[in-house]
Amino acid sequence: MTEASAGRMPGYRREGHDETARQRGDGGVIAVLGAGAIGCWVGGRLAAAGAEVTLIGRARVLDELAGGLRTTDLDGGDVLARMGDGARTVRIATEPDAARDAALVLVTVKSAQTAGAGEALARVLPEGAIAVSLQNGVRNADVLRAALPERRVLAAMVPFNVVRRGPGVYHRASAGALRIDDDPAAAPLLAACRAAALPIEPRRDMAAVQWAKLVLNLNNAINALSGLPLVAELAQRPFRRCLAAAQREALELCARAGIPVAQLTPVPPRWIPRLLDTPDRLFRIIGRRVVAIDPAARSSMWDDLEAKRPTEIDYLQGEVIDLAGRVGGGAAPVNAALAGLVRAAEAGGRRDFSGDELAAALGLR
Ligand SMILES: NC(=O)c1ccc[n+]([C@@H]2O[C@H](COP(=O)([O-])OP(=O)(O)OC[C@H]3O[C@@H](n4cnc5c(N)ncnc54)[C@H](OP(=O)(O)O)[C@@H]3O)[C@@H](O)[C@H]2O)c1
Description:
Bound molecules: NADP nicotinamide-adenine-dinucleotide phosphate
Strand order of the largest sheet: 6-3-2-7-8-9-12-13
Helix content: 40-55%
């Protein structure tokens, strides 16, 4: 395990911070609003590489960081950032007020909380601060833009899964480069990511990137309803058939709506349903080349159901259903059925479907 320094912050206001940052000539404080799986992992890695990071989140999450924030990954990386006040440390706070001295704020709340996060940031973010949405879904950056009309807001995309492995330990369980709007305002985050050896790719087609991620994320619902780790779920063809049907439906609607869908994996989006339909033995060989996933990883929708929190279903399957309505009389029966089952699971319903049971519930033969 490599170690950076770390430390603890109570209610929180640090005087004279801006001057310190300017004197150092670095990118200033990076605040993370919504310290959960993604916020802690990305924030922890940036801090360990020298950035000054303030994690803003719930006490139940932050209290676990007293001994430091440990971030591990699929490639054997294991880094500790201690709580502290200064470069290479992580400070913690429970109120968005703590973003008052941030040059950059990474928004990592779930989609339903984006509007609230934006309102809170509008009250405290200093002039010139940049906000970056590191969220799934296709609307979050626009929701932030509406709340922060005076600030530069960039869309970004996180391709990998992060799971909490224990108190203060977050694990990146799959791989991929972050994507971000190709914009000069992305420079501070690009620099911090470079320092942390976090791959990040500026893109001019972030809308297409976000739709591509959404199409991949249609599996979140299937994974949550299977009750299985991702690798075990995807190893079973009946679950993959459900995903292929959901993806075909979404891709067809995107095509009809003229929405481009970027290629995020070695396989173009329209070929992925065909790949999913292959027999288990063949899929094992090809699938491994397309995406590596830790055997214990699950979708964050499974985490949400497990913790009895609302899921992001309205921002994933819900977008496909909405698109079906917009492209004129279109229907999205597979995604609508999945959304219905997830809503039932949110209310305490089943989330232990076998692949065949799920396929039958989606009306697949
Ligand atoms: N987890 C993954 O592997 C993954 C991968 C790629 C993308 N994403 C996307 O990244 C985003 C974040 O996901 P996540 O899994 O990191 O979520 P998460 O673990 O639930 O973390 C978000 C945290 O923010 C807290 N929060 C919400 N509003 C807040 C506020 N105003 N002030 C302080 N804290 C606040 C939440 O607390 P409460 O729960 O109490 O509201 C929660 O602890 C989502 O859009 C998700 O789809 C996740």
